[in-house]
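tmp note - PadR family transcriptional regulator
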Amino acid sequence: MSVQIYILSKLMENNSYPYKLKKQLSEPIPLDELSGLTESKLYYHFETLAKKGLIEAIEIIKEEHRPDKQVFAITDKGREELPKLIYKLFEKADDITEMLIALANIKYVDRNKVAEILEKKLNTITNRWNTVSRFEGQIKIDENNEKLVKFMVGYFSTKIEHKIYWLEELIKRIKQEEI
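out:
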C-alpha cells in the first residue's frame, strides 16, 4: 500500500514514469534499497494501479539506444482513492515507522480525521496496556523466574510507554500543523 501511495502522490505533482520515481526515491538517501523496493516491484505497482484505473499511460518517450519510457498520469479515480489509501494506512499501521509515507502525504487528507484515527489507536493501546499492567501483581515470582519477570516487565513497560509518548506527540504535532 505504501508504494502505491508513493506513486499516486508523485503523480499528483507531475506525470512521470517508473524509472524516474525509483531514481527520485534513491537520492540522496537510497530509500529504495533500504525498503527493498526493486524496479520490478515498482513496475508491478504501476501495473496494478493502471488495472484499477487509478493511473493511465499518457505518453511513450522513445530515445535512441534506450528503452521506451511509458509516462503515467493520475486519473480522477486515482485522486479520489489516494486519501482513502492514506487513511487506511494510518488505520492499519502498528507503529509510526509504518505511517511515514502517509505522514509525508498528509496534505492530501483531513488532518482532523487523521488525528481522530490516531487518537482511537492511542486509546486502544492505552486501554490494552492498563489491562495488561494489572496482571503484573498476579505473576508468581520465585527465585527461578524473578530476573526474567523483572526484565520482561521492564522491557514491555518501556516499549509501550515509548509508543504512547510518540503517538501523543504525533497527534499534537498534526493538530498544530507542524507535520
